[in-house]
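Suppose you are handed only these lines of text.
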Amino acid sequence: MGNNTFGKDFCVTIIGESHGAAVGTVVDGCPAGLRLSIDDLQGELSRRIPPDPILSSARREKDEVQILSGVFEGYTTGAPLTLLTLNKDVRSQDYEKLKVVARPGHADFPTRVKYGGFNDLRGGGRASGRLTAPIMMAGAVAKKLLENLGIQIYAHTIQIHTVRLEKLLSSAEIKQKAFSNSVRCADSETAEKMREEILKARSDGDSVGGIVECIAECVPPGIGEPFFDNLDGDLAKIAFSIPAVKGFEVGLGFQSSSVRGSENNDPYAVVDNKIVTLTNNSGGILGGLSNGMPIVVHVAFKPTSSIPKEQRTVNLEEMQDTTVQVTGRHDPCIVPKAVPVVEAAVAIVLADHSLRSGRIPRVIGRKELSELSDDTKPQPHR
Ligand SMILES: Cc1cc2nc3c(=O)[nH]c(=O)nc-3n(C[C@H](O)[C@H](O)[C@H](O)COP(=O)(O)O)c2cc1C
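From them, the structure of the protein bound to flavin mononucleotide can be written out as follows.
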């Protein structure tokens, strides 16, 4: 059957459907003693929805996070964390006619075949962008864990359709400015051009895609589990679990196939008594292991498949050609919403691998034994 869990030590299970009662996550393996509040989770989850309503779907969920288990007196207990948010703003009637008409570019047809037609198709069911809310919640926990190692993760939009960010921005600029506009591009001039591109597509009854860049700084060298749980492999795997992702690259990525070794290799140097590389074409990963340089990944999103423009399709019951115009509430571009989702996904992988490599302890801090009740103190032999 399906596999709804990611990670070996920091295990993230995603639950719920787009128009079911709730979406959520069970995170098993989070160390005890991590300070975690509703505000930590809420703050991250709220970053998913861009403030500009014309750039994203009209579905407006409040996304109030509930912690059902795993936190006691403000700290994680070491037991599985259960986090969820209720689905309240649902309009399932929009999906009535899609029961038998497969949307081109969406998951409807293969999902119907795989689950024999029993799948919950309302709002795309499990194949909905709504399922990125649980990734955000699990990512919020992962980010808090990684803070203990000093690891910082941030993402921004570098391309919408054909508009590409050409300026080289510092990490400080990206951190400060990426979320200052609705397309989540740190350069305001390019952001405006990207916004126009989305609005143009929207007014044509169409959609556009784009690329998100994500950077993880201060990742210690040596994290990753070759052979098959390479750090880049796991990052690619989680990226492709995000709906609508069609491309992934680390560092120079596809471009590295068209340069010479002498151009691609990152020369080593000793700076401040630390081994660094003078360029970062490897994107911080060599041999499936972090090399201590910033991890840089690019994630490509296709244009949203549900568009009002008329498209050819088939009626699955009548086995007849037909056409479809997808109405309902859909994002004309997925990318702005996906920017913090990519951050969360990268955080989940780094939390898992940091635990596996022993960089994060199983208990963070320790209550003094004197704080424990008498009968839990170690007793003398006699
Ligand atoms: C944040 C986010 C929002 C999305 N919103 C929509 C949407 O409004 N309409 C739509 O058709 N697809 C949307 N998608 C994409 C579909 O879920 C996705 O295309 C579908 O599951 C098919 O999977 P695939 O594109 O990965 O092959 C969204 C994806 C993400 C990550």
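What can we learn from it? The pocket of flavin mononucleotide is lined by residues 57, 106-107, 124, 127-129, 132, 242-244, 302, 304-306, 330-331, 334, 337-338, 341 (CB under 6 Å). The mean pLDDT is 93.
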